[in-house]
Predict the structure.
Amino acid sequence: MKKILAILGSALLLTACDSNEVGDVSLGLFTTKDIKLNILQDPLIRGVTCHVASIEANLSFSDPSDSSISCRQTGEITPEMIAKIDKSASGDVVFKKSKSVFFKTMKIRRIFDPSSQTLMYVSYSTKETSGSFKHSLSTVPLWGTKAFNSYTGS
């Protein structure tokens, strides 16, 4: 039992020390929940930065599933970057974070839409909450970048 408590305590400490955190908004004096704001840079498309807002509950074994994502072009996007990404309909997971000791995870997936030349970033929870899988979507069009029309499919 001590071993399990030590593991859970370590997991809670590691979750609280997020190096990507850029903001923390308290939801009030009488709650242990905060809105955490994180910055994420796409590992393959270095010219895209996403900001994610999610609720984290201190002293809880499970964080709420709600999250919001906003992604923007913040640097150069090249044809070489687009060539490296998964172009399947399910795309790539570019980020994941544990939201519970009970196997709930928040993931951010990148999906490329070749018809509109747009990168789509969807943030979602892997566990159903209140009859729904929570999710949020943001898009980054390639219009105006060197990568625009560099990939037409095949």
User: Anything to note?
Assistant: Residues 2-141 form one domain. Residues 86 and 92 are 6 Å apart (CA to CA).
